[in-house]
Amino acid sequence: MRKIVVASVVVIVVLAALGVGLWITRHIEPLQVSFDGVSVKSIGLTSATLNIRLKIYNPNTMITATLLRADYDLYGNNIHLGNGVIPQRVDIPAGGTRTVATDFDLSYSGAARGLWSALKEGGVSWRITGTVFDTPIGTINVPFDIQPPV
What we know:
Radius of gyration: 21 Å
Number of domains: 2
Distance between the termini: 73 Å
CATH topology of the largest domain: Immunoglobulin-like
Oligomer: single chain
Structural class: alpha+beta
Number of helices: 2
């Protein structure tokens, strides 16, 4: 008899946990990613280091979102400049916004050569595409494609 009671309790706990998990996944709003700017951090002989800043907003009212990682591609004046990673963990409280910064090495060679003069004059049309990986209960891929006004 005792084994039946223990088995019943285990089944009820597992079903309740599955129900809560299903409810949470259906009610989680994806993070909203926006562009916060690009600046030149340093200039070298063959490349420059750019500082890319993204604002990440958590629209959920009760759940802290955790940014585990973000992968992105950077474009300047419709030229693919390369890809980068935001590897640090960032907790974004419910209803809160965090700004995340990452360095991007821009080589002066190839397609980016023509972009350098526009970058010095401030006339670059930026575009960032990528994926943010987050969730309090597992990994959810949140794609983003940001093209801020010039």
